[in-house]
């Protein structure tokens, strides 16, 4: 079993698994778990890192300049060991660089750093994707944290809701049976700014806001502690669970799965950003426990 790295403040403690640089536990001051229980009957992950793609690609490949490269769902970073490059009592930084292995899937030079930092009751994840190569680096990046549903404060699962920082009246994209983005959309499940969580919302799969107008939301029961989640750098959002599971994923994305009919070059895929040679892109997310 991989040794977890813990960071702490008086208000929060977080554990990160160097395999995948995956946030595995988030505890309040009393030791109550705010993350998923990772029950394998539903989903055994906690908060995988999505890089260099989000979701599935048509045919399980990306296409670059007429060549095809195999690409796992959500990319390969979540399945690789990161190197810890810095550690303190309340922060830790992990890094992953390209290798002979990654170039089988993705023929680019890159350096992916993920910094986890606790300040009081806030956990911030700061991602830096650097391009040490000589050509533009096309990529996507996404967060995929699974929070406890219900939160451990004595409120029923049915009392939990998500409240967006802005109105979200637009239709949401749906995931097709093959994991691509379906051609059809569904009406918004949000009433004004509030979405009451119900299993039936997720019977097909995740709900996808493309674009998302909010840069933050809160999650919790209507009367009780909540999680304030901010994602200022990601223009899309997925929310997902499985019926009767003990988690809900709030997933800020800078990218999206392949549309159902997309077979073009990866550079042209919707949601792909490009980092110029010698440059870097930074993407952050924060989670604050409000008691």
Describe the structure.
- The chain has 291 residues and is mainly beta.
- It has strands at residues 5-8, 12-17, 22-28, 61-64, 67-70, 83-87, 91-97, 111-119, 122-130, 137-139, 141-142, 146-148, 160-164, 172-175, 181-186, 194-196, 207-209, 216-221, 226-230, 236-240, 247-254, 273-275, 280-290.
- It has a 9-stranded antiparallel sheet, with no helix packed on it.
- The model has no long low-confidence stretch (mean pLDDT 97).
Distance between the termini: 33 Å
Strand order across the largest sheet: 6-7-8-9-23-19-18-13-16
Number of helices: 0
Classification by helices and strands: mainly beta
Strand tally, please? 23
Helical content (DSSP H or I, runs of 4+): under 10%
Write down the secondary-structure element order.
Answer: EEEEEEEEEEEEEEEEEEEEEEE
Largest sheet: 9 strands, antiparallel
Radius of gyration: 18 Å
Mean pLDDT: 97
Please outline what is shown here.
Helix content is 0%, strand content 42%. The protein has no helices and 23 strands. It has a 9-stranded antiparallel beta sheet, with no helix packed on it. Strands 11, 12, 14, 15, 17, 20 and 21 form a 7-stranded antiparallel beta sheet that branches. A 3-stranded antiparallel beta sheet has the order 1-2-3, with no helix packed on it.
Layout of helices and strands:
Elements: E1 5-8, E2 12-17, E3 22-28, E4 61-64, E5 67-70, E6 83-87, E7 91-97, E8 111-119, E9 122-130, E10 137-139, E11 141-142, E12 146-148, E13 160-164, E14 172-175, E15 181-186, E16 194-196, E17 207-209, E18 216-221, E19 226-230, E20 236-240, E21 247-254, E22 273-275, E23 280-290
Antiparallel strand pairs: 1-2, 2-3, 4-5, 6-7, 7-8, 8-9, 9-23, 10-22, 11-21, 12-21, 13-16, 13-18, 14-15, 14-17, 17-20, 18-19, 19-23, 20-21
